[in-house]
Amino acid sequence: MPDKRQILGAFCCPAECSSKFVCVLYTQGIGSKEWREFGRTEVIDNTLNPDFVRKFIMDYFFEERENLRFDLYDVDSKSPNLSKHDFLGQVFCTLGEIVGSQGSRLEKAIVGIPGKNCGTIILTAEELNCCRDSVLMQFCANKLDKKDFFGKSDPFLVFYRSNEDSSFTICHKTEVVKNTLNPVWQAFKISVRALCNGDYDRTIKIEVYDWDRDGSHDFIGEFTTSYRELSRGQSQFNVYEVINPKKKGKKKKYINSGTVTLLSFLVETEVSFLDYIKGGTQINFTVAIDFTASNGNPAQPTSLHYMNPYQLNAYGMALKAVGEIIQDYDSDKMFPALGFGAKLPPDGRVSHEFALNGNPQNPYCNGIDGVMEAYYRSLKSVQLYGPTNFAPVINHVARYASSVKDGSQYFVLLIITDGVISDMAQTKESVVNASKLPMSIIIVGVGPAEFDAMEELDGDVVRVSSRGKYAERDIVQFVPFRDYIDRSGNHILSMARLAKDVLAEIPDQFLSYMRVRGIKPSPAPPPYTPPLHVLQTQI
């Protein structure tokens, strides 16, 4: 699961017909309809276009849907009770909508007062860096103490960062260089957070040891430095005397136990998933639904495709759970929707790659609701048949992904199925080929069937292979939907749990493709600059 990404939300709100504003942010818990106040901006007066300074720091997860509500008030007194002030309107959105908008800047109309133009709100988000730098360093040593009776020494370095309580925590060990008093260690990469917790002046202690086979390594000596000192690079400031305190206390003529020299110091900033999204990379979502006969007659309540007028079936829940999160990262909200394993009208031919909307030249549906409508229409027109073949729909998405390799687009295919795969050899080959492309595959198994064969496609343990070739990346995530069904019958919670698990690997799969291909994020658009106006603020 990816790390938490903290998002800094700054909110600028052009509004109308008032002169004293406050904006209140509310959030919703997963599976809950209750809104809880998260925070308030400062009060701004004497302007119709307030640009709020106070920012809200929130945790962001790609795989979670974070519902947000912004309420605007005209402040009439110093009372913290919002009912004492005039309600001016509100805006609903998700954190993903803000992050996924161009430049992570979302503009929406303020609503809530019928028949009134309440103005617009501009919401921006930025990722807190949280010390994303890594450093590539290399060291050598000269004239270290000889520790081995028959040879010289087998030296290695141990790095420690200091803690707030003056204790030390090990953060890196170099390799052992055998039989030398003048070792040159290989360059190594370490995050600045691991090295010094982002504090450039925090003490870094480095100990030098002589390696012994039995694990009782001999202490040669130690020295201290800091990130700020190391960042000077190779210079006279980064040649360190290795001191053994016991020897120094015993021998009056003791100078040192050798020297260690920094040979190189290179800082690299790690790019994040959000850097690409902010730079304009689009996530293209395609869904493929299993229409094989093993699902059961859609007219019968026992069918996995049964259209219950009161609640979604398992296919609908899986589709909405994943689609409603991914749609925030696709600007046009047009999604190809495919089916496989059915006989199509009018001639009854079997297809493993048909458009749910009936238009093979243009299989796109408008939003997730449009995909749902096309799915329901298809159930009424096609005949469920078989077998369960995945390769055609994987190849369908791969054809599009192969034409866009510049990092501007990434493709996610969601396959929802009830049964055992029939074309495993062809599917494995398709997955191996797709692993070189900007795409990921999510497979959700619905119903009571055994899905053991699917685990073979999910390369978490053993990388998928075909004809002796292994997948370049792990791009498949499989889960059985039954593992996520809430026992109390809360379908919203079931969908949230499913989405959290199947989408958690997408950012890392996305980054692995970009890194392998050496694709850097495009520059983000310039930040929004509000119009000039005179401000008075109350904190």
Automatic annotation (TrEMBL):
Task: Tell me the ranges covered by the C2 domain, including all copies.
Answer: 1-108, 117-240
Please indicate if the UniProt record lists Metal-binding as a keyword. yes
Q: Does the keyword Repeat apply?
A: yes
Alphabetical GO biological process terms: cellular response to calcium ion
- SUPFAM superfamilies attached here? C2 domain (Calcium/lipid-binding domain, CaLB), vWA-like
Q: What Pfam families would the database entry show?
A: C2, Copine
Protein's recorded name: Copine 8
Per the similarity annotation, which family is this? Belongs to the copine family.
Task: Supply the SMART domains for this chain.
Answer: C2 (SM00239), VWA (SM00327)
One GO cellular component term, please give it: plasma membrane
* PROSITE patterns recorded: C2, VWFA
Keywords assigned: Calcium, Metal-binding, Repeat
Q: Which Gene3D superfamilies match?
A: C2 domain
* Record-level Gene Ontology MF annotations: calcium-dependent phospholipid binding; metal ion binding
